[in-house]
């Protein structure tokens, strides 16, 4: 990928720039908890975005997407927003840096990626993090890592219409090879967990479906959670986020909020606790419990939070039938992947059966990705 980027960069701009990269992510457990102030447990992966960048001394950005074979130029003022969605991510990062007082100018860039799009591995966070990290480095802005993650998150909010939490950008900025990270999204305390489950593998099964309107459905989930938290706050003023609420407190407002908001909140309160249970289990090397919690998450995401879909439920059922230790829909939902914790000896049989059964039912094969936990945003030599 580096050689292809470099060749194109020379053709377009006549010389060489610096190389930067960042990563997509997986999440072992803790889904839709981040914007509720809860815990998440992600790690960066070996699939990401790579960009060559050089400052060009003007006030314009010249950007080329190698994968889409598309060239876009834009300025750095609010009214200069490009219409191409990939370019809006880069533009948004620039704007968010400028809003924070960062003095940046134009640059030339060519970039490419290998995070499967729409698979729930957060290719967009990888793109945002690459450019936030690179501009911070090239302009020596001194922005700390959390703020770099927030710049990516604010890009999603303000330029891409997704009111996401911080997990994806956190993972792609802070990711460290071989480690998952537990992040408390309220206090922003985090801890690295070396992750090397002896005898097991983590594998992703990508349904290769992405349902329309995923971002508006995502925003609606967030609103449900905020309404439920506000109702609970009436009785318990200490509840800032749903994460602070106890199940009994949710029961107190059951008749006040809608049945739908109740189900959403029930899922979130359970999920926050599941992350903590999984951390305890990992410390004991108890992967059976980790897996059991993953199935519970799937059930909650499917029946209570309603962000799964037929294809993902099907993949989850097959995992269960095959005796896979843990399986669940990963990421925002509405398509994308399941993440599976599989015993080594079961791996090949499970994958073969899943591919065959899925193809028979849906007419196409799911894609299979082995998870390799890798470094996040960085400068390449
Ligand atoms: C998307 C969002 C994250 C998070 C997950 C669900 O990936 O970008 O902030 O909410 O969905 O856990």
UniProtKB/TrEMBL annotation:
Swiss-Prot/TrEMBL keywords: ATP-binding, Carbohydrate metabolism, Cytoplasm, Galactose metabolism, Kinase, Magnesium, Metal-binding, Nucleotide-binding, Transferase
GO cellular component, one term: cytosol
Domain GHMP kinase C-terminal: 281-358
Gene3D superfamilies in the cross-refs: 3.30.230.10, GHMP kinase, C-terminal domain
GO molecular function: ATP binding; galactokinase activity; metal ion binding
One Pfam family here: GHMP_kinases_N
E.C. numbers: 2.7.1.6
Keyword field contains Cell membrane: no
Domain GHMP kinase N-terminal: 89-176
Domain Galactokinase N-terminal: 7-51
Top enzyme category: transferase
Biological-process GO terms, alphabetical: galactose metabolic process
Family to which the UniProt record says this protein belongs: Belongs to the GHMP kinase family. GalK subfamily.
Name used for this protein in its record: Galactokinase
Species this protein is from: Candidatus Cryptobacteroides excrementavium
Lineage of the species this protein comes from: Bacteria, Pseudomonadati, Bacteroidota, Bacteroidia, Bacteroidales
Gene: galK
